[in-house]
Each structure stands twice: as C-alpha cells, then as structure tokens.
Design brief:
heterotrimer, A mainly alpha (235), B alpha/beta (252), C alpha/beta (282), B: alpha/beta, Rossmann fold, 3-stranded antiparallel sheet, C: 282 residues, D-Maltodextrin-Binding Protein, domain 2, 10-stranded mixed sheet, two-stranded antiparallel ribbon, 12 strands, MetI-like (chain A), transmembrane helix (chain A), MetI-like_sf (chain A)
Chain lengths: 235, 252, 282
C-alpha cells in the first residue's frame, strides 16, 4: 500500500480545499444518518421506556430480543429493505429504492434496537429511583414514561450517539438500498468502499479520517450542548 | 409566612376520607410475615406517629396504607369505602430520601400540581406560594438536585403539601438532616397539622415523636403492640418492648 | 426556559442540515441503469453521461454491481436499463421476457495480471488458455471474483477450455473472493495471486503494487457489452421511453463516438461496436 502518512495529509488537503463533491457527500451522510437517528429515537425511546416500566407477559423475552437486535448485520437489513422496496416487492409502488429515503429506512431498522435497548437500561435505572414517588403523585406507569424520558435526557443522549455512530459508520445496508449512485445516494461509507475497490487506498483512508472527524465533531457538539444545559438544569 | 387558606388540606369543607381502617392486613416476603395487623384505626385530626425499632415494618406499613404496595391479605377502608383514585388524590407522601425530578425547583412543584390535575392557569400562582411557604422562593430556577439536603427535603415537603392533601404520610423525613434543617421540617409539619392535614409519620427519633405526636402507634415485628395517646404512651408505656424502646435500650 | 433552548438548538441543527443537503429526491426526470463496476469504476459512464443528460434532460443514475446482481436487480424491476457484459446471461434475460431486446454497445478486453516474480512463468503469453493451464500446473495462487459476475463467468469458461477443475482447487491455490473487481484486485495484489480482470478497471486501478499485465491479446479475452431495456410489460414502473432514448443514444453515433474518445493515461479502454441502425429507427 501507499505511504501511511499520505492519507492524513490528503485528508487535510481535502478538507481545506472545500471540495464541492465531498461536501455534498458529507451533507448527505449527515442528513441520512441524523434523520434516521431522529426517527429511531421517536420509536426506540418510548419502546425502551415501555420495556423498562411495563409489566406484561413476554417482557423478558422482548428485552432479550431487542438486545439481540442491536447486533443486526447491516447487510441483512439492507437485503430485507431491498426486498421490501424492490419493484418486485410489496412496497415497490412507493418507488423508494435507490433514494436517500430508502437509506434512512434501512438505518432506522439498524438504529432503533440500539436506542431502545440503551433507553430501557437508562429508564429502568431512573424508574428504580422515581417509581414510588410518581405513584404517590398519582402518575400511572404508562403516564410516567414521558417523565422518565425527559428526566433521563442526558443519559439518553448517549443512546442517541451510539445510534448515530452505528448509522454514520455502516455501509452494508446503504450500499444495497441506496445503490451508491453518484450525487444521489453516495455517502461517506459507500464512497470509501468505492475508492477502496478502485484501489485508491490513500483516498479511501483520507475519507475515512474525515468520517471519523465528523463523528468526533457531532459527539463534541452534543457534549457541549449537554454540558451547557446540564449546568443550568441538572445537578 | 403562615397561609392557612392555601395549606388547609383536609379542611372541613372537603369530603372526609378518615378514619382509615386496616383489618387483617398481612404482607409477607420470603415466607415471613413482615406486617401482620389485626386491626388499626387512625382517626381524623392530629398527628399519628408510627414508632418502633429498626425492622419493625414501619416504612412497609406506611407504603401499605398509602397504597404503594398491595397487601397479601386484609383490607383498607377510607371512611368506610375501599381505596380508589378519589381517596388517593387526597393523600401525599414524603420519603426518607427526597425523590426530586431532574428539573428546576419550581418545575418540581409544578409537576406535582399537574399530575394532580390542577388547571394550568392556577399552577404558577400556587407554585409561587409553595416556594414562599418552604422558604425556597430565591431558588425557584435552580436545579432541584443542586439544593442542600435540608432544602431538598423542604422542597419535597412543600411539593407534597402543594396538592392540599387530607392525609400526609412522612417516612422518617429528617433521618439524614442536621438539627436546623430538622427544625425547619418540623415547623412545616406542625403547621400543616394545625391547618387540618392529618399527619401519619414514621420516625425512630423519640424526641421528634414527643414534639410532634398526638398519638403513637408502636410497631414491633410487624404487629401493633400499642396504639395510644402520645402523652400516655411516653409516660406509661403499656408493653415491655415500648418501655425498653423509650428507655433507649436495644429492642430485639 | 433552558430546556427550550436545548431542544431548539437541536432542531435548528437538524433543519439546517436538511436544507443544506441536496434535495436529490425532487421529482426530476431520471432513469436507473443497472450496470457493472467495470463501466462505472473506470470512469466511462461519468465521462459520457453528461452529454446525454444535457441533450435530453434525462439524468442517468447508475447502480454499479456485478453482472449477476445487476441482472437480478433488473429482473426485480429495479432499474430501467441493463448495461452488462455476459452475453449468454443477457440473451437468457431477454428470452425469459425480462428484457425487450439486446443491443451490442462496445467491447473491451480482459487481461491476466500477476506479480513481477511470475511464479507460473506466463508473462508475455498471448495464449490465455495455455497460460491458465500453466498456472494450475504450477499451483500458483489465482484470485477469482467468485461472484457470478460477467468477469467471473468469462474466467470459468477459460478454465473449462484449459481443462482445469477449479472447484477441486478452491481454497488451495484457487481463491474465490466473492467480491467486486476492485476488491479482488486488492486481494490478488495482497497475496501475490494472478487475477483475470477487465483492462479498464486495471488501468484505472490505483493499488497495482509490483503487478503488471502478463497475458493479453488473445481473441478469447474479448469482452462484449450489451444494453437492454427492462421490459415494461413485466414491470409497469419501467420508464420505457426515457430508457429507450438512452439506449438509442448509446448505440447511436453520438454515444459511440463518446465511448471511443474516453481514454485513461492515453489508452482507449472501450471500443464501440454497435450495429449501425436502419435510418428510420433512431
């Protein structure tokens, strides 16, 4: 392979050059993954909270299932979403295959179990502290879910970041349902896969460095947001 | 500071839910009867102190009466009818370690009022009054969990009182507080009692029991050993266990 | 209150990103072409498609996968046009009714690349079948696509002609990567294995190491590309008119000229050979 230092200087030059193609790809990556995390949070957090406070038959089994689904292979998810959205599949009429929407759907499937499983843990711990007080205030189990989610918001941020990390880094699902179409569905990871297959290893690695840098920036931004808010709202 | 109009929970105008009658109340865990009470009647008015050595089942009894846990046998009746949402709405409880939401001091009180179904329009004023009452007005915007231990418990107490309960359960509310903070809590509790709120309070501080109690329920190994007027109880306890307890001996 | 600014900042960030990102899903006019890595990764399609888009207003979205997967995707109706290189499979696709009609577009050629050490001693040969027999005989490592792609199918035909049973050698000197051309070349360079590749991918490949072309010029290495419109009678979603317009352009004088003019490092990679059309048809 090429000199190992090359990718770093290349990554640096790429960032400095403000390359329009690169910017498009980076923005699409962020848009797809952040949207997926947002939707997955809307589903996963209440689901996790329900598993944490609920008392129903099969709850233990459901927790095991959700925990196991954290390890869903992206390729399998991609394949399933492809079969759903394909013109030969049940949702073919929606014409979503090879669009960013298809990529968002696949990532939602990947990320929801992660957010649900981690939310369940956070909410269960908090509920241990809150449950009696909330019952005393006349708040039922079901009605306590929004309270627990809101009061656990700083810990839940970690769940969101874990989901975001999974979404922004995976390639197996988006390359199948997105098709890695230039200017349409090409994101950071599929570009890295493409450049690797072209043998442009330095460029691929440079893009990888940029991807990691973006992930660090998003984490830092959330950290700052959280730090600022925590100072004011929380002990 | 005193505001009888606002903290007159259980005032005569409200439908009374007392007396509280427990019959055949049993709670067991691991095959042991932790609570086994044939009959306990707590009447309206004044402060009932639940006393007893560690492990007597005081906290458990309070949770059973408040309805936080369900008994394995027996029944509870509030003024002759079983516990339901309406009787629940007229009760509140303060725990040994205050459970404060991760929100501002004011938001903690607002949350309790909202959960109690108070209309939004009235809540802001009632939050302000409760804060004033607890001496917490200057800390309204502060995160509740940054308060000192005494302030936290004061907040928990005025939050419980904000919904104007007819019955207030207190589970060793000053167990981990210094004397000054304890005095502040006791002041608020006596004031609530004077305003007509029935206080049912667990403590193992005999001094506190003497200061606040109108009657005493003495619990030992899950059973009511004595239930009598406070003055009589402290002057002449009727049971060996209570005598030993008041004398400061180890009660096994 | 503080919590509002907290949520507000998050929402503003999300909204900003959404607006800043290209709205690719807007209902512009486009077709999807299921094609192979050799045409897309070599840069051919990127080079010639803008002219077509400019002329017709039709954007061409290329999904670059192996020929086998491209044909399967097209069978599912997930594409309007198929542009691949495996003539027997293409003819079967049309015969089964999935495609309307197959047209020759162009050809390129395969080459065998290998390490400078050349353990099988095949460098400079123009007899691919003989060279492959020697590789098998020497037990020199050979990296195969193993992915049912057009290149893989061509390679298997050559082994058959050479009388070598590669299935028996699988896992030994014969190593199937189950990956695309580029990944297989990366693997081949990594383990010093011979690889059959299309010339276009090889020339534009960036990680050659000490590898070079060892066998080329055999007529059996000829690699024909065909283009097929996916049958709208099978899949109503197929954009038949726009897809046909693309096929007409690609096999017509403008497309053919653009293909011939595409060069990397001064080398022409694809040679147009569409049959001239009767005057009335385009």
């Amino acid at each position: 392979m090429q000199n190992f230092a090359d990718p770093f200087s290349l990554a640096f030059r790429l960032i400095l050059s403000g390359d329009a193609e690169l910017l498009t790809i980076v923005l699409l990556s962020l848009r797809v993954s952040l949207t997926a995390v947002f939707i997955a949070a809307l589903i996963g957090m209440p689901l996790g909270a329900a598993l944490a406070v609920g008392r129903f038959a099969g709850r233990e089994a459901a927790i095991v299932l959700v925990n196991a689904l954290m390890g869903l292979p992206p390729v399998v998810v991609g394949l399933c979403v492809y079969l759903l959205l394909s013109n030969a599949g049940p949702l073919g009429v929606l014409q979503l295959l090879y669009t960013p929407t298809a990529m968002i759907i696949a990532q939602v499937v990947l990320v929801t179990p992660i957010i649900a499983a981690l939310s369940r843990q956070v909410v269960e711990d908090l509920n241990g502290e809150y449950a009696e007080q909330l019952r005393s205030l006349g708040v039922s189990r079901a009605a306590s879910v929004p309270t627990l989610l809101w009061d656990g918001r700083f810990s839940l941020m970690t769940a969101l970041l874990a989901g975001f990390g999974r979404a922004i880094a995976e390639v197996g699902a988006v390359i199948i349902v997105g098709g890695n179409i230039n200017h349409v569905t090409r994101v950071m990871t599929t570009t890295i896969a493409l450049e690797t297959s072209k043998g442009n290893l330095a460029l691929a690695l440079a893009l990888g460095i940029i991807l990691v840098t973006i992930a660090i920036c998003v984490n830092a931004a959330v950290g700052m947001l959280r730090g600022g808010a925590r100072q004011v709202v929380h002990a | 500071m005193r505001d009888g109009q606002i903290y007159a929970g259980g005032a005569p105008a409200l439908p009374g839910i007392l007396p509280l009658l427990a019959e055949g109340l049993v709670f067991q865990a691991g095959g042991r009867r932790l609570i086994d009470i044939e009959r306990l009647r707590i009447a309206a008015g004044g402060t009932t102190i639940v006393l007893g050595p560690n492990g007597a089942g005081k906290s458990l009894l309070l949770r059973l009466l408040h309805g936080l846990i369900a008994p394995d046998a027996g029944r509870l009746a509030w003024a002759g009818r079983p516990a339901d949402a309406a009787t629940r709405k007229l009760q509140a409880m303060v725990f040994q370690r205050p459970v404060l939401l991760r929100r501002s001091v004011a938001a903690n009180i607002d949350y309790a009022l909202k959960a109690h179904g108070e209309p939004r329009a009235e809540r802001a004023a009632r939050v302000a009054q409760a804060l004033e009452h607890g001496g917490l007005a200057g800390m309204a915007r502060q995160p509740a969990r940054t308060l000192s231990g005494g302030e936290q418990q004061r907040l928990a107490l005025v939050r419980a009182l904000a919904v104007e309960p007819a019955v207030l359960f207190l589970d060793e509310p000053t167990a981990s507080l210094d004397p000054a903070a304890t005095a502040a809590i006791e002041r608020l509790v006596s004031e609530a009692a004077r305003n007509g709120t029935k206080i049912i309070m667990v403590t193992h501080d005999i001094g506190q029991a003497r200061r606040l109690g109108d009657e005493v329920v003495f619990l030992h190994r899950g059973r009511v050993v004595e239930h009598s007027d406070a003055t009589a109880f402290f002057q002449d306890p009727g049971s060996r266990e209570a005598r030993a307890f008041i004398a400061g001996e180890l009660v096994l | 209150m503080r919590r509002r600014s907290f949520i507000g900042a998050a929402l503003a960030l999300a909204a900003g990103l959404w607006l800043a990102a290209p709205q690719a899903e807007a209902d512009d006019r486009f077709i999807i072409v299921q094609s192979t890595t050799s045409t897309a990764n070599s840069g051919l399609l990127d080079a010639i498609l803008p002219a077509f888009t400019e002329k017709t207003g039709i954007e061409v979205r290329v999904v670059a996968v192996g020929t086998g997967q491209a044909i399967k995707n097209a069978t599912n109706g997930d594409g309007d046009v198929l542009l691949v290189h495996a003539k027997p499979a293409e003819e079967k696709f049309v015969a089964e009714g999935w495609g309307v009609e197959r047209f020759d577009v162009m050809y390129n050629d395969f080459v065998v690349v290998g390490p400078a050490a050349d353990p099988a001693g095949v460098a400079g040969s123009s007899d691919v079948v003989g060279a492959m027999a020697r590789i098998a005989e020497a037990g020199a490592p050979f990296a195969s696509r193993g992915d049912d792609s057009g290149t893989h199918k061509a390679e298997l035909r050559l082994w058959k002609d050479a009388g070598v049973d590669v299935a028996a050698a699988s896992g030994g000197w014969y190593r199937e990567t189950g990956s695309g051309m580029g990944a297989t070349l990366n693997a081949g360079v990594g383990m010093g294995a011979y690889v059959l590749t299309d010339r276009a991918t090889w020339i534009s490949f960036g990680n050659k190491g000490d590898f070079g072309v060892v066998v080329e010029g055999d007529p059996r290495l000829f690699n024909q590309y065909g283009v097929i419109l996916v049958n709208p009678e099978k899949h109503a979603a197929v954009k038949a008119a726009d897809g046909q317009a693309f096929i007409d352009w690609l096999t017509g004088p403008e497309g053919q000229k653009a293909i011939a003019e595409f060069k990397i490092e001064g080398q022409q990679l694809f040679f147009p050979n569409a049959a001239p059309k009767p005057a009335g048809q385009s």
